[in-house]
Amino acid sequence: MTGTDATAPSDPSGVDLRSDTVTRPTPAMYERMRRAPLGDDGLDGDPTARELEALVARTLDKEAGLYVPTATMGNLLAVLAQTERQGQVLLEATAHMFLTERGGATLAGLAYLGIAGTAGAMDLDELERTLRRPGGLRTELVGMETSHANAGGAVPPLEHMRAVMEAARGAGARVHLDGARLFNAAVALEVAPAAIAGCADSVAVCLSKGLSAPAGAVLVGPTATIERARRLRKMLGGTQRQVGVVAAAGLEAIETMAGRLADDHRQARRLAEGLGAVRPGALRTNTPATNIVLADLPAHGPDSAAWTHALREHGVLVRAWGGHRLRLVTHRHIDTAAVDAAIAGFRRAADTLLG
Ligand SMILES: *Cc1c(COP(=O)(O)O)cnc(C)c1O
Prior knowledge:
Elements: E1 15-16, H1 27-35, H2 47-59, E2 64-68, H3 71-81, E3 88-92, H4 96-99, H5 104-108, E4 111-115, E5 117-118, E6 121-122, H6 124-132, E7 139-145, H7 158-170, E8 174-178, H8 182-189, H9 193-197, E9 202-206, E10 217-221, H10 223-235, H11 244-256, H12 261-276, E11 284-285, E12 292-296, H13 304-313, E13 316-317, E14 319-320, E15 325-329, H14 336-354
Parallel strand pairs: 1-13, 3-4, 3-7, 7-8, 8-9
Antiparallel strand pairs: 2-10, 5-6, 9-10, 11-12, 12-15, 14-15
Helix pairs in contact: 1-11, 2-11, 3-10, 6-7, 12-14, 13-14
């Protein structure tokens, strides 16, 4: 790393708005990784990983925690550990677990069913109807997501989450929360993370998004569920050895990085406002509740691929999110100057593409 800043964005030639996963570890994380007490997590336990599991469980007011390589594995383990085969899992129809992780159904032996939603919140009437449908599959698990990635980082209100939990429990189903960005949601709602986690039996949080750890996620829940998930993690090949060297960055992430997420939310709002003014009426964005901006492109103009390419030419990295939609995510390496540079890049791309 001689002569380079380990905390700098991954692509110094561009403003990288593709995802908050591009964030690099902080200097304090590297220092903590170097000093972390280590053990064999497949034998008698890695002390740093165990400390992280206990910290996240305490923070979210759950009995126990399990360190996993990714939130994807955490979500899958939550399903496997809390269900019997041949039932169903209900998810909001645009949830990450439904659109991106549904292949897990082929491993779990369960049907995944999408429930229509608005701004990431399931339609409660449709949920109730599905839970009570005569002759339908037995619902084993109901999943929620906050902040909701595909709904532009929307944060469903706690009352909604409690209503979903009550409906699920009334039908004898467990409740899992895909809280990959739960700490962003807590900032947006101005509540403790545990208040959100209280709306579910199990919760998965991702450490490698806005929290800036290089890798890792934690699944928390009741002791019996986590013990079962720990055995299943081994089966999936998710048990790692001296994993404390990475878990140490996760400890630093949970202890120190949640507080600064409000900055990312502010920058997302600045970005959305700036984009809205590039070509009034042509580029339309959500009003971001957290750190995700969705920009809708003129429907009859150049598509997302053309915009992504043109923006790259102007030093702005974004992702296509459908045929005429772009996704932009703010994070620790995106300051006000970067946001303004991105807006300027959009202006130049619009000149090229829209004339
Ligand atoms: C990123 C993400 C995941 C998956 O997290 P990984 O750690 O990358 O596996 C799951 N759910 C949501 C909502 C996400 O945004």
